[in-house]
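#random but structural
TW: two for the price of one
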Amino acid sequence: MHRLLNNRTKIRNEFQFNKARGFLLAGNLTQSELQEMRRQMGKRGTLVPNRRIKLDLPSKVEVLQTKPLNVASSGPSAAATCTGKTCCGRTVSLSFNSNLDWLDGTRNSKYCSPGDDTTKMDVFMLDTGVDGSHPEFAGRVTSSEDCYSANVLPWTPNVDVEGHGTHTAGTVGSTSYGATPNVNIHAVKVLSDEGSGTDSTVICGFEKVKTWLNANSTRKAIVSMSLGYSGISKTVNTYVTSMVNTYGSRLVIVVAAGNDNVKACSATFACIDGVVAVGSTGATKTESSWSNYGSCVDVMAPGENILSTYLSNQTAYMSGTSMATPLVSGVLAQYWLQNPTLTGNAIRTSVSSASSALFTGGVSLKRVSRKPSGSPNKFIQYKCPFGGAC
């Protein structure tokens, strides 16, 4: 097998062999080469395709010049303090129809932003990278990791050229557009400059998370993944499941349900047990026509025309379950900070619980195009303390 790879320089760069797990990720083989590799491997491992993954946005990006939101008040009121924690760090006046306006349960063009020391929380963005120089992040993109692959070019290491990752990171924790400002954002580039990747780049991203968890044994992390497959990747499903089983006490993985208007259970990552899968709604809490749906969706969040950070210090409107996912990631980061004794498994249970303070109802799940979708009537919310008024 090694002789075969050495004879093909291009192919050698497209393989990863993991002896511990006994699988080989491969790409661009001829049929005869595939048969020869299987013969040489025998019973020593399993040969599986290196499936491709890419961004799937339902609409084009509208890029704007940066216009920071107006911060109406910079300090908390007495009523905004609960159990020694600052719940309402500031009130943000919203000059547009914002996803943040839904979070406190009141549509009043204002958002009560959390004021806890959220720098204690770490969120890993597995995406196209993050433009950490954007002033909205205020230097809080604390690390940048890269999972370069010769299979998915063009690829500029550690740089977000596509803009998707910068947008989703802004919804998690930018100063003006983030659900939970001040979190530590870890950029992990697993997708190319054109928004495509493979099983191996995704697994590499999780390896970066694993390394950090092993080096920071007392810290917790949320992985936010606004990407997905058009079908099932058994290799990635197995790997993510092992991550949940091994690090579930300190790790929560939040994923996009997908934008193909099909059952979410039919595609990686939403089909994986132990992750939080997010579906999308519009401004009226109506399930988006393109959002994947069904029993594998855990919670709904706004995902249409979402304004957030973008490349070159700009902002942009984008739509997709990709935009709904980081909002949930940000809310869960704050919820975990307020409930530090909870494990990651308990956080996931809170999302799936019928009576959780993490969401409210009122989602319209019927569409003209089909019967009721089977998605949950659960709409993400942030109230501080959770279950009460801020």
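TW: number two ↓
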Amino acid sequence: MDVGELLQFKPLLPQKRGLDGGGEEQRRAGTELVPAAKRRAPEVERKPHSETRRDEGDGETDRLQRDRGERETRKREEEEREKIMKLVEEQGEGEAMDASAVRRMILSFEKKSLKNQEMRTKFPDNPERFMESELELHDEIQQLRAIATVPELYPLLVDLGTVQSLLGLLIHDNTDIAIGVVDLVQELTDVDTLNESEEGAEALVDALMKGQIMSLLVQTVERLNESVQEDANGVHNILGITENMIEFRPEVARVAVQQGLMPWLLKRLKVDDEEMSSVIS
């Protein structure tokens, strides 16, 4: 090839592919050649800030709802107990509280008391295991207050050993149980109630004195802290029991002194006198 032919030589150019002809492979190939860094990452759904805060607050809301539910449950239980007591008071003697009803109440109380003793013996260092039985026992003690409406049936409390069981609970490790028994005995020994049935009153007072109730009341009152309202109410009812029994049977006063009530009274009067002096000064 001479110089002229070289100057006239033109290389063949590749034909351009149309947009509709064979371009799909080129586009597909081009796509595969795009670097990974330049590819568009899939979008991650982001929660609005308000929703994030809402999620964080769900736990607190659930806790508040549980607390509210527990309060409402306790309130309903208290209302139900009050309704039961009201129905008992409204019913005539012998319609609601007859001997059979009293026996059923006493049996239920004794079962709950025994269960609590067993649970405390099995799990002495684990209050969570025996706390439920303690609450059930406390409720049963409250239910026994209905017996104060039928003093003529007090001999059943004595014959079935319930008086001794109650006296034993005055030294229960849980002072709430002891205070519950104090409240019950205070109602049972109400002077007006005792005067409704001489036979029932004599049987109850005899059993209480035989069980050395004054000594047990002194032990109980020494465990209470009068700065706590519930304990202060317990102290008030202990003094009420003493007053009731002395009024019904005056010789109880001598026994109370012999079993340690007077030293506690003197100590309490001394504390009151010191508190009064500090207020005056």
